[in-house]
Amino acid sequence: MVNIAIFASGNGTNAENITRYFKNSNTVKVATLFTGNPKAGVLSRMEPYGVPCRIFSREQWNDPIDIVNELHRLDINLIVLAGFMSMVHTPIIEAVKGNIINIHPSLLPKFGGKGMWGMNVHKAVIEAGETQSGITIHYVTEEIDNGTILCQRSCPVMPDDTPESLAKRVHELEYEAFPAIIEQLAEKL
Length: 189
Ligand code: GAR
Description:
- The chain is of the alpha/beta class.
- The chain has a single domain (2-188), classed as Formyl transferase, N-terminal domain (Rossmann fold, 3-Layer(aba) Sandwich).
- It contains 7 helices and 7 strands; from the N terminus they run βαβαβααβαβαββα.
- The chain has helices at 13-21, 42-46, 58-62, 65-73, 90-95, 119-127, 163-188; strands spanning 2-7, 28-35, 53-55, 78-81, 100-104, 132-139, 149-156.
- A 7-stranded mixed β-sheet has the order 3-2-1-4-5-6-7, with helices on one face.
- Helix 2 (42-46) links the parallel strand 2 and strand 3 (53-55).
- It is globular and about 50 Å long.
- The model has no long low-confidence stretch (mean pLDDT 97).
């Protein structure tokens, strides 16, 4: 069994989609969800699936010994960042031997890096007059949005798009691609 820890900070529609996808799997288990945000919508989304959630403080994320211990205790093989908005430090990456991936709502390297998360990304894409956007799933390193790319999918940006309408189109790509990529990776673990 490959045990996944999802890290998420906000609404958690991706976290829920992944959890639903693997609900009856014999090979992949969403074993836990970690967050730094006690008010994150993702916490109630996990409830119906019985996924245990842990909330860690800013200090614990900055000096992640407790988080690393918990990853080992739960025998986590893969970490999935699904709308996770904090830095991930090296001890966490090492705790899962580099098996940690993120989803980003643009075609990296465009619209990545500091401050580029969630709706900020879609606003920037529209302001730049892009005709294409999409998603990138990549390995996580200490450098934001810079690890090896596993998958990219694109979608059009319509002339009348708002950040919200673009976000909806990008989310659809995420829901389709992310569980499939996780499944592929899990097969190799
Ligand atoms: C997703 O679109 C994800 O790609 C993005 O946050 C959204 C979370 O939505 N992640 C980042 O911007 C990371 N830099 P969700 O909470 O509904 O899954």
